[in-house]
Design a protein that fits this description.
The protein has about 500 residues and is an alpha+beta fold. The protein is built from 19 helices and 8 strands. About 40% of the residues lie in helices and about 10% in strands. The longest helix has 21 residues. Belongs to the PrpD family.
Length: about 500
């Protein structure tokens, strides 16, 4: 890996195109380096992971609405169109709308892979747009693997170097460029075209973090899917010869100068050198539980404490619980956010998903976590849960913040230390560094775990034979020929998927 210095340039400095970050990203995208077997296997895992959480979301309101939107847009004249999760492969829509609908389904439950560093991300959000274009363009399994390796690489590398949330910019601003680069690799586009697409994708996907603040709305799931849609449209425009604002990152009126660290900003962005394999997907990790990633380890600790100290489930036994954790966990999903909604039993599912006091209280009482049952209004409104919930606060701990930002995978951590003061005056203290499913956790996720996650989440919606067919296809991904990628769609049981249930402009 090579660290590339990135700063703001005044217009009269005339930063050469080949020295711009967007161009360097494009150079990574066109590098013909082979994808390793290890990376290929992880790409297969993440395609399975995305499918599992998307199928579990098929009839949730945001997915029904966006699917109805997508079904009004027919495949364009220059390709085959792309499929929608849950529907038969005879039903196709244009790739940008397929990416949008499938992306919302993947993101709705906040239950797929993650990478956290200077910024945070769900790099699996690259899969819906790149796969949709691959289906539309009749590409092969190997083409898709190459495109996804690029998408993961660029997103993870940007997340390592450039913080967006510090400036209240939503993290999908790293997704637009990564998806555009991945699509460029998939299609075998030239450096200039990908450079322009990366710039356009960034320019059209910068938005504020209000989508993840206060009373969180259904747009939380739409935001990354919209970024994927914008990336596809950016590629389409630049293939037609259209250009982008430049330098998009480094310009004196560009993203860094006005949306991020300002005119004096300086970053070091790591990117693979020419001929260096794209391995960034191996730095990411998926979720065992349907909740914000910073909650994963805390759920595991809470269910451990539930077994060891069942008395903690009764609020009358607990005086106070403090979760000592990282800056990000405290200020984004903890009491440091100062969002009263994080303690509101009538809050939306999206809000509860971003409330570690709520999540810890429920996991401590139940000794488990469920992607539906743990979020129902009845569960959130239970009197003893509300009482316990309001005794839980978070506090930033400098050491946990340091470990959160560490570049050393062996010490990077997303958990913390819990201190529980009981009403009898005694105290319970415990800690956890990473989730059980993390590569360094107690039970790291392997292929069998991804497959079990799919079978569990899809049990109600999909026939077992259809799941078997999908798994056989995805595990043969490197051998799938051009035009065979529609096999990566999963068809739900007859009559299961709700369609034409909403009305809008289209």
């Amino acid at each position: 890996m090579k660290n590339h210095p990135v700063r703001v340039y005044k217009s009269e400095e005339n930063l050469a195109r080949e020295d711009q970050l967007a161009y360097k990203i494009a150079q990574v995208a066109v590098d013909p380096v082979e994808v390793s077997e290890e990376v290929t296997e992880m790409i297969i895992n993440r395609i399975i992971d995305n499918a599992s959480v998307a199928i579990a979301s098929l009839n949730r309101a945001p997915i029904v609405a966006v699917r109805d939107q997508a079904l009004t847009h027919q495949p364009s004249k220059n390709g085959n169109g792309a499929g929608l999760f849950g529907l038969d492969n005879t039903v196709k829509t244009s790739p940008e709308w397929a990416a949008f609908a499938n992306g919302v389904a993947v993101r709705e439950l906040d239950y797929h892979d993650t990478f956290l560093s200077a910024e945070y991300s769900h790099p699996g959000d690259n899969i819906p747009p790149i796969l949709a274009v691959a289906q539309h363009a009749g590409k092969s399994g190997k083409d898709l693997i190459r495109g996804l390796a690029t998408g993961y690489e660029i997103q993870v590398d940007l997340v390592k170097a450039i913080s967006l949330h510090k400036h209240k910019i939503d993290h999908v601003a790293h997704l637009g460029p990564s998806a555009a680069a991945g699509i460029g690799t998939l299609l075998g586009l030239d450096t200039e075209t990908i450079f322009q697409a990366v710039g356009q994708a960034l320019h059209t996907t910068t938005a504020t973090r209000q989508s993840r603040k206060g009373q969180i709305s259904t747009w939380k799931a739409y935001a990354p899917a919209f970024a994927g849609k914008m990336a596809i449209e950016a590629v389409d425009r630049t293939m037609r010869g259209q250009t982008s604002p430049e330098p998009i990152y480094e310009g004196e009126d560009g993203v860094i100068a006005w949306l991020l660290d300002g005119p004096e900003a300086a970053y070091e962005v790591p990117l693979p050198e020419a001929g260096e394999a794209k391995r960034a997907i191996l730095d990411s990790y998926t979720k065992e539980h349907s909740a914000e990633y910073q909650a994963q380890a805390w759920i595991d600790l809470a269910r451990k404490l539930h077994g060891e100290h069942p008395e903690l489930a009764e609020p009358k036994n607990v005086k106070a619980i403090v979760l000592h954790t990282s800056h990000h966990t405290h200020y984004v999903i903890g009491s440091g956010a100062n969002d009263p909604q994080k303690y509101d039993p009538t809050a939306s599912r999206e809000t509860l998903d971003h409330s570690i006091p709520y999540i810890f209280a429920v996991a401590l009482q139940d000794g488990s976590w469920h992607h539906v049952d743990s979020y129902t209004p009845e569960r959130a409104g239970r009197a003893d849960t509300v009482e316990l919930w309001n005794k839980i606060t978070t506090a930033e701990d400098a050491e946990w913040t340091r470990r959160y930002h560490s570049l050393d995978p062996a010490e990077k951590a997303f958990g913390g230390r819990v201190e529980i003061e009981l009403t009898d005056g005694s105290k319970i203290v415990d800690e956890i560094a990473v989730a059980d499913a993390h590569p360094l956790g107690a039970r790291p996720f392997a292929r069998e775990n991804y497959v079990n996650k799919l079978r569990t989440l899809a049990a109600e919606a999909v026939e077992p034979a259809e799941l078997d067919r999908f798994l056989t296809a995805v595990e043969r991904l490197p051998e799938l020929a051009a035009g065979e990628l529609e096999q990566l769609n999963i068809r739900a049981k007859d009559g299961f998927v709700i369609t034409n249930a909403t009305e809008g402009l289209f």
